[in-house]
Amino acid sequence: MKTSVYLFAPLMLAACVSRPVPPVEPVAAEVALPAPDCSAESFAIYFEEGATELSEESDAVMDAVAASYSRCDLYKMEIEGHADASGDSATNEVISAKRADAVLAALETRGVDAQRVHLVAYGDQGAIKTGGVEAPLNRKTEVRLIPES
């Protein structure tokens, strides 16, 4: 009998050992993603005096504008070119228009649809002055993302 226990012991031991549980098939859970925030946004791109070309620093702003624009397909865009009060009004009008065009061109390379963009050149209208002294704060282009209703 001792011999029979030794013969069957491995079989009895194998029956007591638990077998691994087969892997469970992954279940695809449907998770509702939150709706993107499509509220109005505004970005400012600043320029050197008399300049109409974008600086290297403005690349980060252009990337942020393009990312926000692509996040919500309900946006329309306004690009407002501004100039400071130095120089004559006609020249400032041209400078502000070229600044707005430069911003639009940079945004087009990032996938922005030019058909949904409205350009405005304000020239030196609303140029900011501090204590009667001209300040460079109006040497900019403002980009406004506006939800379409």
Give structural notes.
This protein is α+β, with helices and mostly antiparallel strands and about 150 residues long. It has helices at about 1-15, 60-70, 90-110, and strands at about 40-45, 75-80, 115-120, 130, 135, 140-145. The protein is elongated, with a radius of gyration of 32 Å.
Q: What is the compact description of this entry?
A:
The chain has 149 residues and is α+β, with helices and mostly antiparallel strands. The chain has three helices and six strands; from the N terminus they run H-E-H-E-H-E-E-E-E. Strand 4 (129-130) and strand 5 (133-134) form a beta hairpin.
- What share of the residues lie within helices? 25-40%
What fraction of the residues are assigned to beta strands by DSSP? Answer: 15-25%
- Structural shape: elongated
Low-confidence stretches: none
- Write the element-wise H/E pattern from the N-terminal end onward: HEHEHEEEE
